[in-house]
TrEMBL record:
It comes from Phenylobacterium koreense. It is a multi-pass membrane protein. InterPro entries: EmrB-like, MFS, MFS_dom, MFS_trans_sf. Residues 26-472 form the Major facilitator superfamily (MFS) profile domain. The chain crosses the membrane at residues 24-48, 60-80, 117-138, 150-172, 178-199, 211-229, 241-258, 279-300, 306-328, 340-363, 369-395, 416-433, 445-465. Keywords: Cell membrane, Membrane, Transmembrane, Transmembrane helix, Transport. Its main location: membrane. This is EmrB/QacA subfamily drug resistance transporter.
Amino acid sequence: MSSPEGTIEGAVATKDDSAVTRGWLVPAIIGSALLMQTLNATVISNALPAMAETFGVEPIRLNVAITTYMLAAAIFLPLSAWIADRFGARRVFMSSIVLYTIGSLACGMANDMLGLVIARFLQGVAGATLMPVGRLVLLRTTPKSELVGALAVLTMPALLGPVVGPILGGAIVTFASWRWIFLINLPIALIGLVLVYRYVPEVKEQEPPRVDLTGIILTGVGLACLIFGFENLGRDLLSPWAVAALFGAGAVSLVIYGRHARRTPHAVVNLDVFKNRTFSASVIGGGFMRVGMGANPFLLAMMLQVAFGMTAFAAGTMTFVSAMGALLMKTSAPPLLRRFGFRTVLLVNGVIVALSFMSYSLFRPTWPHWGIMLVLGIGGFFRSLQFTSLSGMVYADIDQEEMSRATTTSSMIQQLVQSIGIALSALLLHLLMTVNHTTTLTPEVVSPAFIIVGLVTLISMLWFIRLPPNAGDEMSGRVPRI
């Protein structure tokens, strides 16, 4: 029989050393390895106009470079938990770093759109295990009472990507070549591999369950069809009937999977986990928030660089303050959650986040740069609190033996909704250009998209309001008032 907490190999010797390693060293190292993902995710949005010029396509078409990554991640995510249990989370995590680096090198050497798409697909395959497996190591080595703090440490190095990315990416694109935004991953990967090998303990199940190959195929096909369908909404690449067929195939695959999961003891995605209110609110309700997170970088790049005519460096300088605000929030999140609880923070802060997205619609070329930066910084501050809260609460009531599949399920839905956010933003811009009878992006065309995205995020309130007042208190360390 496997122990519910699996086996931990290579752990540090003493209790005090273990607490220090568990509390900040391991989360910081895993977060630093994830820096590659966040750095690329931030930088690529800034680089889209320059890449479009190289490949001779419209900038709006380059969102395929982002959604291809998410498509690959969605297809291979179902395998991540089983692979980690079978071969060891640290070993899989290190292999993912190597594969992600190879994909980055291929992106930097791409000479056409097809080459870029293939390379981004390879990156997505690696990313499918990089984030969930890294998080799984943390979840299995950290008590629940310490998890919010550990997750905050985990995300702080990763947030350096959004902080450094806009300025670094803007400078690279403006003064050098966009290709270097991918090549800078190479030294980061090397450092990450050394630190992971030296300090991160190996974690795996003694007897991992049989791989649910049927479930993996059904969920992979279902998610791939849905993501590709959203990507082609409102485009002329596929006929409306073909897009409808993609949505139909995706829906049918997932319905069949639902029936398969009910009669399979070790289904790759445990649908019973959605009966858990904290998990459901974090993953499904939080999904509407993540739609905004997926749409925001793409819309800002189109607004500042294409509609306003800024250089990539100038736009990066403007948007990096959003990540600075997010970084500042990381130290504030744990005490706020202990004081007010997850439910209150998610409800109140969710409205603030939605309003911050809508406020971006007011940006105009005549605005002073400090004014735009102030609004973006405030938005990043509160958005970080929302996602830290969602990330902390998602596992509040999940047992250790279900942690692998819960992590896989959460990561799959995150990939899906973020790709929906990017596809939605591209579709909105296409429709708004049609309504305005123009073929170019102007501030008047882009602005309404921010309002629509902000309204979409408010749908999450339907899940947050149904949470009990003490939801996730074990995670946050909150003591309810009598």
